[in-house]
Specification:
By secondary structure, the protein is an all-alpha fold. 77% of the residues lie in helices and 0% in strands. It is flat. The termini are close together. The model has no long low-confidence stretch (mean pLDDT 81). It is a multi-pass membrane protein.
Length: 316
């Protein structure tokens, strides 16, 4: 790789770092303007004004906003997420188990949806214009048009209420068997996989079609190369960047979908923790959860951009 490529990669990493700082400022401002007073929420309606004022002073809520932001940002940089207002314990201890549960859900969803979506997207591109391609495209558009909460509600009505195959609520626990694992994750995974698989199929199909229409693929076809060789040797390696980009962008939809899914199925993940923290005005917990979501999104997008740069044949 030449120095120009590495300068592009370095520039993209610097942009991601700057974006993270901007996002941190936005998250802090957004949580600071939430309605209500956290001191009043914690002490209750019967609290005296003196008690509320004392608690605000103890939690440094009367300090200037800029000072609180710099203090909070410095804590993030050093790994200190602060203390939860509602639970009076380190935020990291609250987030740790919940983050592990969310990672389990995201991992199972990824293992289930990515191989299927890539296979269907590549197949639809190869069989472009066929009945399979048209039916798959129609199904993808239909799924994309349906919001996550509708898919989750339909899954509950079908599999939990009518068929009684799966529990309506998903509780993360140690699975003793593969069947037990399926029962724990089936409903959330079905909902999330519907959304991200549809997006991934659409973008993978578009990336493969663009690659299959390039002159070097057409030259390989004219030379008599087999369809399998054309796809595996010529098309897929050069479509790697766009496909990775499609996977990363599709997985980023997990961040929005997981909030709805964890709330509907009462799954004890980090998104459900953030939703509960909003009701108690637990600002350090809300801010830390939001930053984790933003960090994961930036990592996915940055990884996709770096892979696209390194796999671009024009930059080799």
């Amino acid at each position: 790789m030449n120095s120009f490529v590495w300068s592009l990669v370095g520039g993209r990493l610097l942009v991601a770092l700057f974006t993270l700082v901007v996002v941190a400022f936005t998250v802090f401002c957004a949580t600071a303007i939430l309605p209500g007073d956290v001191a009043e929420v914690l002490l209750g309606q019967a609290a005296t004004p003196e008690a509320v004022a004392g608690l605000r002073a103890a939690m440094h809520l009367n300090d200037p906003a800029l000072l609180r932001f710099v203090r909070w940002l410095g804590g993030l940089a050093s790994g200190d997420l602060g203390r939860s207002y509602a639970n009076n314990m380190p935020v990291a201890q609250l987030i740790g188990p919940r983050l592990l549960n969310s990672l389990k859900l995201a991992g199972v969803t990824t293992l289930f949806s990515v191989p299927i979506a890539l296979a269907l997207g590549v197949s639809a591109a190869i069989l472009r214009g066929s009945l399979f391609d048209r039916l798959l495209t129609f199904g993808v558009i239909a799924v994309i048009s349906v919001p996550e909460f509708m898919v989750a509600t339909s899954a509950v009505l079908l599999f939990a209420v009518h068929l009684k195959w799966l529990p309506a609520l998903s509780v993360a626990r140690e699975a003793s068997s593969f069947l037990d694992l399926l029962r724990i994750f089936a409903m959330p995974v079905i909902t999330l996989a519907f959304v991200i698989s549809a997006q991934m199929i659409r973008m993978t199909r578009a990336a493969m079609i663009e690659t299959l229409d390039t002159p070097y693929v057409e030259m390989a076809r004219l030379k008599g190369a087999s369809p399998a060789r054309i796809v595996l040797r010529h098309a897929l390696p050069n479509a790697l960047g766009p496909i990775v980009n499609a996977v990363a962008l599709s997985l980023s939809y997990l961040l929005g979908g997981v909030i709805i899914v964890e709330t509907i199925f009462n799954y004890p993940g980090i998104a459900k923790l953030m939703v509960d923290a909003v009701s108690t005005r637990d600002l350090p917990l809300i801010q830390s959860c939001a930053m984790i979501f933003c960090l994961v999104y930036l990592l996915l997008i940055t990884m996709a951009d770096v892979v696209a740069i390194l796999s671009n044949p024009r930059l080799r």
